[in-house]
Design brief:
5-stranded parallel beta sheet, 298 residues, 4-stranded parallel beta sheet, Rossmann fold, 9 strands, alpha/beta
Length: 298
């Protein structure tokens, strides 16, 4: 049961809970509007810029009959030095849940420790669990999780999206290969908590015979100072036609977006028939609606 729970990482969920979210997602995708969140107020906090996260959450809450309140980090007293604990204690008096997109995952952990209402991670430096739910649901739609033999993530392994894929695949018993440069492997704490993960420094070996090829930006927000170094390391891991041909012929291409076209992926892959990036982006809306309904609904 997810009712009343925080959601900071896909590692917080059981395989049964993930499948419960997917079952409800399928229903909510067919029935756009509901009153399951009628009378509920959900605060959305953004410390980082956002397109998909903000719009999908704000639209989804409205479609479920709830009231979203969108706040920039610097609009709150957080921008003037109030602690995250004091902010969380205050917001719980006004709302039914907080959804936050932050730089530091530790801020979410601190909020969750003191808050009496659910704290939902809409992105942190460590984890992007709402994206992970949409990713796995998209694979279920396009291929079927029980038919997937290999999923491959190519790029920066020490990445919030990669970590969420690792947790989700491990929970569902899926095989995940990570193709990343040496020194850019996933965090040790994630490796230690997951199973069925192969980490390879050869992108071709990682992509070979894969059903799904996934990539993300090489330079995440907050890592701009590393740009020059990363641009020397990552070009061999670009998902282009040559690399993608090592995957299965009917493999799908995924990217959480925004894509830096010509860097981690080429136009011909993003815009190809194998690409499902727009369906993947849409599924943020549907999986998040299911998540909120199960956490907050009656």
């Amino acid at each position: 049961m997810l009712k009343g729970k925080d959601f900071l990482s896909l590692n917080d969920l059981t395989a049964g809970e993930i499948r419960e979210i997917f079952d409800l997602t399928k229903k909510l995708k067919k029935e756009k509007f509901s009153d399951v969140l009628k009378g509920k107020t959900i605060i959305l906090i953004f410390q980082k810029p956002s397109t998909r996260t903000r719009v999908s959450f704000e639209a989804g809450i409205s479609q479920l009959g709830g009231k979203p309140i969108v706040l920039n980090w610097n609009e709150l007293q957080l921008g003037r030095g109030e602690t995250v604990e004091d902010t969380a204690r205050t917001l719980e008096r006004y709302a039914d849940a907080v959804v936050a997109r932050v730089f530091s995952h530790e801020d979410l952990v601190r909020m969750a420790k003191v808050s009496k209402i659910p704290i939902i991670n809409s992105l942190s430096d460590f984890s992007h669990p709402c994206q992970g739910l949409a990713d796995l649901f998209t694979i279920e739609e396009k291929i079927g999780l029980n038919k997937v033999s290999k999923i491959t993530y190519v790029g920066d392994g020490n990445n919030n999206v990669c970590h969420s894929l690792m947790f989700g695949c491990s929970k569902l018993g899926l095989n995940l290969a990570i193709g990343c440069p040496a020194g850019y492997e996933p965090r040790k704490e994630v490796i230690e908590k997951t199973d069925g993960i192969k980490i390879l420094n050869d992108p071709i070996e990682a992509v070979k015979d894969s059903d799904v090829v996934y990539t993300d930006v090489w330079i995440s927000m907050g890592m701009e100072k590393e740009a020059e170094k990363r641009m020397k390391v990552f070009p061999a891991f670009q998902v282009n036609k040559k690399l993608f041909e090592y995957a299965k012929r009917d493999a799908i291409f995924m990217h959480c977006l925004p894509a830096h076209r010509g860097m981690e992926v080429t136009d011909e892959i993003v815009d190809s028939e194998n690409s499902v990036v727009w369906d993947q982006a849409e599924n943020r809306l549907h999986t998040q609606k299911a998540l909120l309904a199960l956490i907050l609904g009656e």
